[in-house]
């Protein structure tokens, strides 16, 4: 057998039950997160439709966008999954990058005006 | 006799190097390409110094002088220092962490070819209507109005070679995080590997701003994008920000591996473990992090205002703290050691005061009010050459002597090496020390000539003499390298004091590096084994099959496509060259076709069997294997 053939291993009943339970939990989490994200999108649209001051709408929608990014990364892109190889390292590098980029924007918006 | 031990024809060797994914061969290619561009940029510097030798000189024209100074800076930073450090990173990092190759050998090859063809593209500008002439920083207010294609060569060439650098940087991060041998915890990694990783992380975060800046410049030059044109609502200062957000970390990208190299040389020849290892690691990370918070100190005179200038001045001075930690750690490593003043150690001893001098003038410029006086004067030129030549070039030359046996299984001549050091070192100080005073006397940088009677004449002459001495030093080093071809094989651990894994490998290094993956038992694991009287490192596995990557010609084809497409993009704005669009399409088609081939064709590498390994070892080290 070459090393690239897929081995076929029969699952035991206990393994099957365990996987089924685990998958159900995982699915529930995904659906809940998806619902939260739809809800956040609804709030964003709602705020724009309600016609609040743009100084309220802009920062609030940006905040919601930030929350959405985190949800997306951790839930749907499996960053929270402990089985993700080097998930912590990937997360660390991403947050460092985000932090560094954030300081650029902060500097441009506060102490540098052109 | 298996194919692994057969002698190859010359053509087969060349083809092997072109298609290779072996980190050691790519390291040698980086070394050769880096040396080539180092020589070209050094020659440009000599031409500039000859022009400035006496007042009102007309050795080169003003326009050509601008091209020389632009290409000198661009080449030295992007196409000489970076690849030369990549040569050491490629060669040493896998060997130091006990890996058989980098994590993505294919990308390693792609990174090299993108860098090399981008660099060749940039240099072809000299023969195709003039080189870029707006300085290595290529400030938009100047470069947008530069006639001809010089700036387009700069933008496209750096874009291609920058992609190569970014790819290599990511490769090193992944390699160091995922491919360390058993027992090699983060805090047992040799310091060069640490600095290679931090430097690669800086590449990862710093190159995207440059890429974006270059892309905007490309749009401005070719399609009238107006990003940097203030008359059309653009903002010319944004280029400066984007460039320096990249450009300042770039300084640390280069100097951190240089620090790492000295952190290997100094303990080896002091025969003492590195003093304050953990503080060295911490200082490296801190320098890397702070390097991103200080870019505006290059722009104090742009008119950012007192608040911004004050904050960036303080942040800049803060970098002096971790750098100082490193300097004291090196001194305390030497302190009380059993010192052997070999050529690499001589470079290390010369490096410490030279680099500190560059650092001190750096802190002077960090004081924003003083920087208004020093800005755009020769003081700045003196400062950054003290940092780059005193810090990086001494590291490269010293490490060339130190690691030559790892690269080529030969030693460089020690006597000639010491002569080279003194000629180069004295020449370096003669060239640049006096430029501090030229700056204080008001000589502006980037001028092609000056009037007599300002008190600058003799100082400039002395500086030129120093530059010629540096040139002689480089020639002596190259002669030393060429002489080593005829030298005796150096063998394993030729300095006798090697501390880390790379010295434990028998020479010549087999292409799979380690017959058995080593077990790392502590910091400086080879030193530990030697102290216990062992002649081998402890192994983590029995002799078995080894999985190795296949060679591939696809990286060359991908890079060649980009190279061809760049010519199409370059000539596209010209009304009289309608064929350029086809060149662009053909080039991109080659690149994407090659990428598609790579994606659709599975390449799982191959297994080197136990019998093959034993046969190769017998061929390399004689009967009985290496014991």
Automatic annotation (TrEMBL), chain A:
Membrane topology: Multi-pass membrane protein
Keyword Transmembrane assigned: yes
Transmembrane segments: 31-50, 56-77, 89-113
Metal-binding in keyword set: no
A UniProt-annotated Pfam family: COX4_pro
Keyword vocabulary terms for this entry: Cell membrane, Membrane, Transmembrane, Transmembrane helix
Subcellular localization: Cell membrane
Main location: membrane
Name used for this protein in its record: Cytochrome c oxidase subunit 4B
Source organism (scientific name): Lysinibacillus piscis
TrEMBL record, chain B:
Catalytic activity field: 4 Fe(II)-[cytochrome c] + O2 + 8 H(+)(in) = 4 Fe(III)-[cytochrome c] + 2 H2O + 4 H(+)(out)
Pfam short name (any one): COX1
Predominant location: membrane
Lineage of the organism: Bacteria, Bacillati, Bacillota, Bacilli, Bacillales
Entry EC number(s): 7.1.1.9
InterPro entries assigned: Cyt_c_oxase-like_su1_dom (IPR023616), Cyt_c_oxase-like_su1_sf (IPR036927), Cyt_C_Oxase_1 (IPR000883), Cyt_c_Oxase_su1_BS (IPR023615), Cyt_c_oxidase_su1_bac (IPR014241)
Transmembrane intervals: 27-48, 68-89, 110-131, 151-179, 191-219, 242-262, 274-296, 308-332, 344-364, 384-407, 419-441, 461-483, 553-573, 579-597
UniProt pathway annotation: Energy metabolism; oxidative phosphorylation
UniProt keywords, alphabetically: Cell membrane, Copper, Electron transport, Heme, Iron, Membrane, Metal-binding, Respiratory chain, Translocase, Transmembrane, Transmembrane helix, Transport
Membrane topology: Multi-pass membrane protein
Gene for this chain: ctaD
Superkingdom classification of source: Bacteria
PROSITE patterns given in the database record: COX1, COX1_CUB
UniProt entry tagged with the keyword Electron transport: yes
SUPFAM superfamilies the UniProt entry points to: Cytochrome c oxidase subunit I-like
Family in the record: Belongs to the heme-copper respiratory oxidase family.
Function summary: Cytochrome c oxidase is the component of the respiratory chain that catalyzes the reduction of oxygen to water. Subunits 1-3 form the functional core of the enzyme complex. CO I is the catalytic subunit of the enzyme. Electrons originating in cytochrome c are transferred via the copper A center of subunit 2 and heme A of subunit 1 to the bimetallic center formed by heme A3 and copper B.
Subcellular location: Cell membrane; Membrane
Residue intervals of the Cytochrome oxidase subunit I profile domain: 9-521
Protein name from the UniProt record: Cytochrome c oxidase subunit 1
CDD domains, per database record: Ubiquinol_Oxidase_I (cd01662)
């Amino acid at each position: 057998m070459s090393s690239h053939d897929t081995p076929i291993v029969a699952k035991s009943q206990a393994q099957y039950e365990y996987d089924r339970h685990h998958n159900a939990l995982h699915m529930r989490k995904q659906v809940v997160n998806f619902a939260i994200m739809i809800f956040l999108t609804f709030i964003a649209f709602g705020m724009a439709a309600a016609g609040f001051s743009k100084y309220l709408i802009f920062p609030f929608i940006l905040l919601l966008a930030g929350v959405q990014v985190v949800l997306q990364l951790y839930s749907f892109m499996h960053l929270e999954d402990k089985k993700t190889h080097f998930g912590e390292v990937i997360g660390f590098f991403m947050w460092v990058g985000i932090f560094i980029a954030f300081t650029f924007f902060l500097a441009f918006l506060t102490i540098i005006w052109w | 006799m298996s194919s692994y031990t057969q002698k190859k024809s010359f053509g087969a060797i060349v083809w092997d190097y072109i298609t290779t994914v072996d980190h050691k061969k790519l390291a040698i290619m980086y070394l050769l390409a880096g040396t080539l561009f180092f020589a070209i940029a050094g020659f440009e510097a000599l031409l500039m110094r000859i022009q400035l030798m006496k007042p009102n000189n007309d050795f080169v024209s003003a326009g050509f002088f601008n091209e020389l100074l632009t290409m000198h800076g661009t080449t030295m930073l992007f196409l000489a220092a970076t690849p030369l450090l990549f040569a050491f990173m490629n060669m040493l990092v896998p060997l130091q962490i006990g890996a058989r190759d980098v994590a993505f050998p294919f990308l390693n090859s792609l990174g090299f070819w993108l860098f090399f063809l981008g660099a060749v593209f940039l240099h072809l500008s000299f023969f195709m209507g003039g080189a870029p002439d707006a300085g290595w920083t290529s400030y938009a207010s100047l470069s947008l109005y530069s006639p001809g294609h010089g700036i387009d060569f700069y933008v496209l060439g750096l874009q291609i070679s920058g992609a190569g650098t970014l790819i290599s940087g990511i490769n090193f991060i992944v390699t160091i995080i995922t491919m360390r041998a058993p027992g090699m915890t983060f805090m047992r990694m040799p310091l060069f590997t640490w600095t290679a990783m931090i430097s690669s992380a800086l590449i990862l975060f710093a190159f995207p701003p440059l890429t974006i800046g270059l892309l905007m410049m490309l749009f401005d030059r070719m399609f009238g994008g107006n990003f940097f044109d203030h008359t059309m609502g653009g903002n010319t200062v944004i280029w400066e920000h984007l460039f320096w957000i990249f450009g300042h970390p770039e300084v640390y990208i280069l100097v951190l591996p240089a620090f790492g190299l000295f952190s290997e040389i100094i303990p080896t020849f002091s025969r003492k473990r590195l003093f304050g290892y953990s503080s060295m690691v911490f200082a490296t990370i801190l320098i890397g992090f702070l390097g991103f918070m200080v870019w505006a100190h290059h722009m104090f005179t742009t008119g950012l205002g007192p608040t911004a200038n004050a904050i960036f001045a303080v942040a800049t001075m803060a970098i002096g703290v971790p750098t100082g930690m490193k300097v004291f750690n090196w001194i305390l490593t030497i302190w009380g050691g059993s010192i052997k003043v070999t050529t690499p150690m001589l470079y290390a001893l010369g490096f410490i005061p030279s680099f500190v001098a560059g650092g001190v003038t750096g802190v002077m410029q960090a004081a924003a009010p003083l920087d208004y006086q020093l800005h755009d004067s020769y003081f700045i030129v003196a400062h950054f050459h003290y940092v780059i030549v005193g810090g990086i070039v001494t590291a490269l030359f010293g490490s060339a002597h130190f690691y030559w046996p790892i690269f080529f299984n030969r030693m460089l001549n020690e006597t000639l090496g010491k002569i080279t050091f003194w000629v180069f070192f004295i020449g370096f100080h003669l060239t640049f020390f006096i430029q501090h005073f030229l700056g204080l006397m008001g000589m502006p940088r980037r001028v092609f000539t000056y009037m007599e009677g300002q008190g600058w004449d003799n100082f400039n002459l002395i500086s030129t003499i120093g530059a010629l001495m540096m040139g002689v030093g480089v020639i002596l080093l190259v002669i030393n390298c060429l002489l080593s071809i005829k030298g005796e094989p150096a063998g394993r651990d030729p300095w006798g004091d090697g501390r880390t894994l790379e010295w434990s490998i028998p020479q010549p290094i087999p292409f799979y590096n380690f017959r058995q993956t080593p077990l790392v038992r502590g910091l400086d694991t080879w030193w530990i084994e030697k102290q216990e009287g062992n002649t081998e490192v402890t192994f983590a596995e029995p002799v078995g099959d080894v999985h190795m990557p296949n060679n591939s010609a696809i990286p060359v084809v991908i890079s060649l496509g980009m190279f061809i497409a760049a010519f199409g993009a370059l000539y596209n704005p010209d009304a009289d060259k309608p064929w350029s669009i086809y060149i662009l399409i053909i080039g991109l088609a080659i690149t994407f076709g090659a990428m598609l081939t790579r994606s659709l064709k599975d390449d799982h590498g191959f297994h080197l069997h136990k019998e093959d390994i034993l046969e190769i070892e017998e061929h390399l080290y004689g009967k009985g294997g290496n014991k």
